[in-house]
Structures are given as structure tokens and as C-alpha cells.
Write a structure and sequence with these properties.
The complex is a heterodimer of chains A (about 170) and B (about 90). With about 170 residues, chain A is an alpha+beta fold. Helix content of chain A is about 30%, strand content about 35%. The two termini of chain A are about 40 Å apart. In chain A, about 35% of the residues are buried. Chain B is of the alpha+beta class and about 90 residues long. Chain B has one domain. In chain B, strand 3 and strand 4 form a beta hairpin. The chains are: A alpha+beta (about 170), B alpha+beta (about 90). At the A-B interface, helix 2 of A face helix 2 and strand 3 of B.
Chain lengths: ~170, ~90
């Protein structure tokens, strides 16, 4: 009888622990970035794998359009009214990815912010607004977070709040 | 009875090995995002002994003859913490 009570108690505790562990605020999922970091996906967002060609093309046109410099896409997260892309800026002897994206002739640089923790570019191309953030902590390899939307107000808020940095967490 | 035990042990072993393998969905399974696919892999032991394995993006791109990389993906598998395999898959043109 004692043994049964112990098993029931242990199972209940384990179940409670599992529920508590899974209930991490509104974070639905974590996309590993290397061994020590992760991008946090929220409840109303969806990690889409494999990424559809349209998403890859959209990302490529905005962040990876350069003939020599490579900033390939790593993950695609679809939000209610926006897309978030995680990319990798590969080292290149001749070109700085921040400057290349900021000066890309196909888009217009709206604003740039920079401190020790990040460099962020607010860009616009046609009716698309996008914010490209380079977190300083994710420099090997150098990761890129691109927020893309047609809602310029939302893009401005993402840029002003440096929201990309709030999405970087630990793998667990 | 012993056959049942052996079968059970075999099933358990298969389940254990499968559980340790992390396979991420890979863009490279669809050629729609790039006309070429390149891979590079490295196998190591006990998380530290890799004997110069190269699973870098550059090597994967080179192996696939890719100069313009569209997407990158990573596949990691781990067998009981003893053998680790990392595979890098790139697509592009």
C-alpha cells in the first residue's frame, strides 16, 4: 500500500514538474542558435519547415541579394502579420554585411541604431518595411534576425524596442 | 521466454537510439529553393574527439558547387552520447 502511495505521489510530482517546465510564459518554442543561444518563438507564431520558396525568395531579395556576400537563411518564423527570418552572415574578406545591407541600392535605409549589444537597420522597399538586427553576442557565426512586414508602424515599434534582442534566450 | 526478452531488449535499443537522434527538417529536401544542394559532415566521439571533421557551411557549399547560398540547415545525431554526427546542408546556385 505504501509502495502504491509512493508511486502515485512520484507520478503526480513528475506530471506537475513537466507542466511547469513546459509553461514558459508565451514562448512556444526555441530555435537553437549554436550551443548556447536560441531564438524564442511566441504562441501566435509558427516555425515553418521546410520554408516555402516564396519565403526564401522574399528573404533573399531583402537580406541576401548580393552576388559575392552570402547571408543565407537558417530559419523562417511566420507571425500573424509579419515574417521573421534568421540568417547567417558568412565571413567575407571584402564586404561588411551590415554596410552591404544598409547600402543596398534596392532598398532605402530609414534608420540605424547601434550599441555594444547590437546593430539594427530599419529599411524600406516599396510597401515592405523590414528591420535587420545583428546581435553582438551571436557573432560566431554572425547571426541576423530580419523582421519583415507591410505594417510600417509595427516595423518602427520592432526597431525602436530592439525587439529582436528580447527574443534571444537560452536553449532551455 | 528468453526470446521475448531478447526481442524486448532489441526494441528498447532501437527506441533508445531513435530517441537520441535529432533530425531537423531540411530545406534541402526540396530543390525548389535552390538548384543545387551541398552537404558536409563530421563524426565525433564523446563530444570531443572529431579528428578534424569539417561540417562547415563553406565546405558544404564547395561540395555542392554552390557560390550563392540560399539556405543553411543543420542535422545532428547522437548515439547514446558516444558517437555524434553533424551534417550541414546548404542549397543555392
Amino acid at each position: 500500500m505504501k509502495h502504491r502511495a509512493f508511486v502515485v505521489s512520484a507520478t503526480s510530482l513528475l506530471l506537475a514538474f513537466a507542466i511547469i517546465s513546459c509553461g514558459n510564459g508565451d514562448v512556444k518554442e526555441r530555435i537553437p542558435i549554436g550551443e548556447k543561444a536560441a531564438f524564442l518563438v511566441l504562441e501566435d507564431e509558427q516555425l515553418v519547415q521546410p520554408a516555402p520558396k516564396a519565403a526564401v525568395d522574399r528573404y533573399g531579395a531583402l537580406v541576401n541579394p548580393f552576388p559575392v556576400l552570402n547571408v543565407p537563411m537558417y530559419r523562417y518564423v511566420k507571425g500573424p502579420s509579419y515574417d521573421i527570418f534568421i540568417g547567417i552572415a558568412l565571413p567575407n574578406d571584402g564586404e561588411n554585411p551590415v554596410d552591404s545591407i544598409a547600402q543596398y541600392s534596392g532598398s532605402r535605409l530609414v534608420a540605424r541604431s547601434e550599441n555594444g549589444e547590437h546593430v539594427s537597420l530599419s529599411m524600406r522597399r516599396g510597401d515592405t518595411s523590414y528591420v535587420v538586427t545583428f546581435p553582438a553576442a551571436l557573432s560566431n557565426p554572425r547571426m541576423v534576425v530580419a523582421y519583415v512586414t507591410t505594417d510600417s508602424t509595427a516595423a518602427t515599434a520592432w526597431f525602436t524596442d530592439v525587439a529582436a534582442m528580447k527574443r534571444i534566450g537560452t536553449p532551455e | 521466454m528468453s526470446k521475448i526478452k531478447v526481442a524486448a531488449a532489441a526494441v528498447l535499443a532501437v527506441v533508445s537510439l531513435s530517441a537520441c537522434s535529432l533530425t531537423l527538417p531540411v530545406n534541402a529536401t526540396s530543390n525548389s529553393v535552390g538548384s543545387k544542394v551541398g552537404t558536409a559532415s563530421a563524426t565525433g566521439f564523446l563530444q570531443v574527439l572529431f579528428f578534424g571533421g569539417d561540417a562547415s557551411i563553406r565546405t558544404a557549399a564547395k561540395n555542392g558547387g554552390i557560390s550563392k547560398i540560399s539556405t543553411v540547415d543543420l542535422k545532428k545525431s547522437d548515439i547514446l552520447g558516444i558517437v555524434q554526427t553533424y551534417e550541414c546542408i546548404v542549397t543555392g546556385d
